Amino acid sequence: MTTVDRPLPELPAEEHEHFELDPATTIDRARATNPVIQGLFTGLLGTQTSPWLIVVVRFEDDPRPVHIPGVDPLAHHRKLFTATGAGTMNMVRYFRDMSHGKLNTGGSVVVGPFTIGYDRAAYVGNSAPGPGQIDRGGVLAAGRAAATAHQIDLSSYAGIVVCGYELLDLCGWVGGMAALCDSHSLVPSLLGQEMGHGYGLDHSRVDTSTEDYQDPWDTMSTANAYSASDPDYGSIGPGLNAWNMRMRGWLNEGRVVRIDPMQPAHREIELGPLHDAGPAAAAIDVGEYLIEFRMADRWDAGIPRSAVLVHRAEANRSYLMAGSDGSHDLVAGARFEHQQFFGPSFTATVESIDEATRRARIRIDQTVRRPRVPQAGVQWPPPISDPGPVEIVDPRVAQLQELVGRYRQALAVSDRYGAPQLLLRALGELAEEVGRQAADTEVTTFHEGYSFEPKSVIAEPAPG
Fold first, then answer.
1. Which of these, 47, 19, 33, lies nearest to 155 by C-alpha position?
2. How buried is 361 (Cβ within 10 angstroms: 0-12 exposed, 13-18 middle, 19+ buried)?
């Protein structure tokens, strides 16, 4: 359950992996692509076909698998990793749910078991190998070589999992689309993290700490996470948090409610469970935080209670935030506060959680404090409750400013994560408001240009 701290072995030039993206778009050599760029393409082009090759291997001195006519010794592997396990909580469903339907690993294939040319005693794990020894990277390379020797085209797959038929190891390469596992770790609660590393995900943390595995509500803290029992695979969950989904381009940005950081706000917002499909809002984007609702079922069946979570992100890692009372899972009546001297400050209050309707209601109260300069008749320094100078703005201008703010946020999201539908909607709203105001304005042409006068204030000519 650790990431590999040495570089991924170089591949021969002919062993190029690729991603197929609908519609009919292929990005060759995606393994060399930055995971953020992969996420961007995922968001822009919809469903990403991302099959994995699962190569089952054994050491030379391991017991040979017993062949029983009519019995597939890798049946469990196929059920777990491929479309064969449709209807179960397998890895295909995991990546579909964690990507809001953008990632399809259903074309994954299981092959083997193949024998690699080392005895078990030669394996040194994450230590530096000596003469005649093999480490994690060596086993990965051996698994690739074994597949190639059996006429398997590695370029047909986005990633590779080398799985020990007996005990081997458990790890993943961040951004490398590669992982190791074995017969003892064939469970989604573990593989979600290791295969997630392949897509660029790193271990999650709690705010104010630099220790990994500290967010038990997130897949990327599997060593210390709330997993649930499962009749098919033993252990599943928890799911990914909203920031980890966003950093991979998997969060449906059209279902994110954004609070303009430049304007005061008082809003009640209803959230559905983060990993559910459907039209309900999946997250609230306020300040640098994403607020999400997690139901204690399905992938999150192991969490203590249905609750609202708040995360921020920094340097490819998500950080779990604590509420005002110190708890990390917020229930009805709990609050999360973000206060700063200048700029936006907000309080997020959980108004209610209704498990029957699968909804949580969150109230956002945001103030924006603007700098004030010393002036006669005004207390200096100003009290913390002083919002700063108040700008009186024509309501028509204020409406355009709000829509421009939404468009600015949509541009930033589209440029970084890929959400063209959100960008087009924001632009359409802005164009609609411009058209509405133009319809209420009379244009008079004269020599040097145009004079705009609202119809409502144009005086009638005096009687002759």
1. 19
2. middle
Domain boundaries, the chain: 2-201, 203-372+380-391, 393-455
Is the pLDDT confidence value at 38 over 60?
no
Q: How many CA atoms lie within 13 A of 420 on its CB side?
A: 7
What is the distance between the terminal CA atoms of the chain, rounded to a whole angstrom?
91
In 24-130, which ranges are E strands? Answer: 25-28, 48-49, 52-59, 103-104, 109-116
Under 8 Å CB-to-CB from 73, ≥6 apart: which residues? 65, 66, 67, 113
Mean pLDDT of 193-200: 97
DSSP SS3 for 148: helix
State the average pLDDT for the chain: 83
Residue 55 neighbours by CB under 8 Å, 6+ apart: 111, 112, 114, 143, 144, 146, 147, 160, 161, 162, 163
pLDDT band at 294 (very low <50, low <70, confident <90, very high): very high
Percent of the chain with pLDDT over 70: 78
* CA-closest candidate to residue 35, choices 244, 289, 313, 291: 244
Q: Rounded to whole angstroms, how far apart are CA atoms 453 and 455?
A: 6
Residue 26 pLDDT class (50, 70, 90 cuts)? very low
pLDDT of 255: 94
> Residue 236 in contact with residue 88, Cβ under 8 Å?
no
Classify residue 311 as exposed, middle or buried by CB count within 10 Å of its CB (0-12, 13-18, 19+).
Answer: buried
Mean pLDDT, residues 92-100? 97
Distance CA 201, CA 118 (A): 31
Residue type, 388: G
Q: How far is CA 100 from CA 52, 168, 226, 237, 341, in A?
A: 19, 32, 21, 16, 37
| Residue 57, strand partner residues | 114, 164
Cβ atoms < 10 Å from Cβ of 371: 10
CB contact set of 449 (below 8 Å; sequence gap of 6+): none
DSSP H/E element including 360: strand 359-369
In this prediction, residue 366 carries a pLDDT of 93
Q: State residue 101 phi and psi, 5-degree precision.
A: 85, 5
Q: How far apart are CA 248 and CA 195, in angstroms?
A: 13
Facing residues of 49 across strands? 20, 104
Q: Which residue has the higher pLDDT, 112 or 32?
A: 112
Q: Name the phi and psi angles at 354, rounded to 5.
A: -115, 105
Q: What is the pLDDT of residue 456?
A: 45
